[in-house]
Amino acid sequence: MSSEFVECQRGAEATLSRGTYLGKRVLLKRRPPKAYRHPHLDSALTKERTRAEARALIRARAAGVRVPTLYLVDLQRSSIYMEDVDNGITVKDYINKIQPKTEEESKLDSLMNEIGICISKLHSDGVIHGDLTTSNILVTPTSGNFGKLCFIDFGLSHTASTIEDKAVDLYVMERAMESTHSEAQRLLMRLLAGYLSHSGKAAEDVFKKLDQVRARGRKRTMVG
Amino acid sequence: MVVALGFEGSANKLGIGVVKDGEVLSNCRRTHITPPGEGFLPKETAKHHRDNILDLLKEALDVAKISPKEVDVICYTKGPGMGAPLVSVALVARTVAQLWDKPIVGVNHCIGHIEMGRLITKSDNPTVLYVSGGNTQVIAYSRKRYRIFGETIDIAVGNCLDRFARVLNLSNDPSPGYNIEQLAKKGKKYLPLPYVVKGMDVSFSGILSFIEERAPELLKNNEYTPEDLCFSLQETVFAMLVETTERAMAHCNSDEVLLVGGVGCNVRLQEMMGCMCSERGAKLCATDERFCIDNGAMIAHAGALLYQTAGPTPFNETTITQR
């Protein structure tokens, strides 16, 4: 069956292929073994992540956040069959493509706000994404609008409800944005505002923790 | 043509080297070695540096066959590192700069490692994994700056290994990490340990607590040997490093990895990184202990580059910083 699948992307950890499953256009995500890792560690990690990803996709959906629909999990082959999001492009590409001073640019603030709200929804239901970046959120742009958000790549996700986990999750996002987008700080403020608007009081504790987590990042301000 | 004299003393290694336009003329080093079971402390390390620095300076100049007159620029480590050792070395660098009337340049220790690695391996635009007793960072050059893509959120990987060496009471000569590496080669039985990767960041303190807590019991029951534990620890923490490096490579579409820092001379880490690289069709650039471990030549080389592009550091800014 997988012979009909065509590889479309090779990430650090998994390969993505497109094909058909039960008459539907699907994305097949496979985690090939890593030869550099000890076999025990490799199979444990692969299983754990495939399972965590499938679980998180279901939980995220229940939390009201759009994610690809899950069709099949094959733990033996560490494969997940899921919906291939129509016209989805990553938020990273979307931001990079935007022309300055256009209508789309003014929509960026509401996009970041929306992302903040979605992350808050995930956190409220105990879903920690674990690898939030602008490459792991899709948008489906239609003329002048970013369309619907879709969160992907839950491979490093876990369920937790501690403030620490939520703060670190936001911190990962912050770091990823700083290294990819020139206007990261402004965008991030918007994102956090969205998070606050949905989480309310709970967000204040998370932000307090976030300050502590930032302080742990040790040497990045040093300029020689 | 620039002849640069570099002073390094941010941790327990004191290094002085002379570099002439990318050619290493001398690279001398003294290491402050503590008894088994003990780490090095700022005060004693600074004393070690003070006791050795003048002899080492003379040796570095003699080996390079260079007189103070021929030196064009004095370079020293501004940070990051331990305060007291940094100060003791910066003080000597500032003094000779004034005595010999030479310009002085403060160098970021991490950039020293990266530039030296690039010089030795001739890599062009690599994703850098900088791993040592004090630092664990995945760095890439993007938008005109070295940027940290991922790093440890608590202790450095070298610190994790060193502190486990103390649990096993291993010798600190030549370094605790080296002795762990030798034991790990004979380890067979794998003990599953926590594996902590958060995005591109890693964390080691939980792994250390986990293995510190269980090691005495596991050894007493003869379930695992010290070799097995060293092996398991290395396999786990190195897998985390290789994974985050690979993620950074995928993120920046990079096909070169440069491995620098003291832990970078661990052969098992080089092997694992090489394996990941060949799976991706990428190239691994690694160096040996002369340049991986803290040294003066790297500070001289990075300082010379800085001097040629940005000029000297104003004397009143030749301070140090621990961060």
TrEMBL record, chain A:
Chemical reaction(s) catalysed: L-threonyl-[protein] + ATP = O-phospho-L-threonyl-[protein] + ADP + H(+); L-seryl-[protein] + ATP = O-phospho-L-seryl-[protein] + ADP + H(+)
Enzyme nomenclature, EC number: 2.7.11.1
GO cellular component, one term: nucleus
InterPro entries in alphabetical order: Bud32, Kinase-like_dom_sf, Prot_kinase_dom, Tyr_kinase_AS
EC primary class: transferase
PROSITE patterns listed in its UniProt record: PROTEIN_KINASE_DOM, PROTEIN_KINASE_TYR
One Pfam family in the UniProt entry: Kdo
SUPFAM superfamilies: Protein kinase-like (PK-like)
Main localization (coarse): nucleus
Superkingdom of the organism of origin: Eukaryota
Localisation per UniProt entry: Nucleus
Domain Protein kinase as annotated: residue spans: 1-224
GO MF annotations in UniProt: ATP binding; hydrolase activity; protein serine/threonine kinase activity
Keywords for the protein's UniProt record, in alphabetical order: ATP-binding, Hydrolase, Kinase, Nucleotide-binding, Nucleus, Phosphoprotein, Serine/threonine-protein kinase, Transferase, tRNA processing
Self-association and partners: Component of the EKC/KEOPS complex composed of at least GON7, TP53RK, TPRKB, OSGEP and LAGE3; the whole complex dimerizes.
Protein role: Component of the EKC/KEOPS complex that is required for the formation of a threonylcarbamoyl group on adenosine at position 37 (t(6)A37) in tRNAs that read codons beginning with adenine. The complex is probably involved in the transfer of the threonylcarbamoyl moiety of threonylcarbamoyl-AMP (TC-AMP) to the N6 group of A37. TP53RK has ATPase activity in the context of the EKC/KEOPS complex and likely plays a supporting role to the catalytic subunit OSGEP. Atypical protein kinase that phosphorylates 'Ser-15' of p53/TP53 protein and may therefore participate in its activation.
Protein's name according to its UniProt entry: non-specific serine/threonine protein kinase
UniProtKB/TrEMBL annotation, chain B:
GO BP annotations, alphabetical order: tRNA threonylcarbamoyladenosine modification
Protein name per Swiss-Prot or TrEMBL: N(6)-L-threonylcarbamoyladenine synthase
Ranges of residues in domain Gcp-like: 30-300
Cell compartments where the protein resides: Cytoplasm; Nucleus
Any one annotated GO CC term: nucleus
CDD domains documented for this protein: ASKHA_NBD_OSGEP_like_euk
Top EC class, one word: transferase
Cofactor remark from the record: Binds 1 divalent metal cation per subunit.
Top-rank taxon: Eukaryota
PANTHER family: TRNA N6-ADENOSINE THREONYLCARBAMOYLTRANSFERASE
Reaction it catalyzes: L-threonylcarbamoyladenylate + adenosine(37) in tRNA = N(6)-L-threonylcarbamoyladenosine(37) in tRNA + AMP + H(+)
Family: Belongs to the KAE1 / TsaD family.
Required co-factors: a divalent metal cation
Binding-site list for a divalent metal cation: H109, H113, Y130, D294
Classification via SUPFAM superfamilies: Actin-like ATPase domain
Gene3D superfamilies documented for this protein: 3.30.420.40
Lineage, broadest ranks: Eukaryota, Metazoa, Ecdysozoa, Arthropoda, Hexapoda
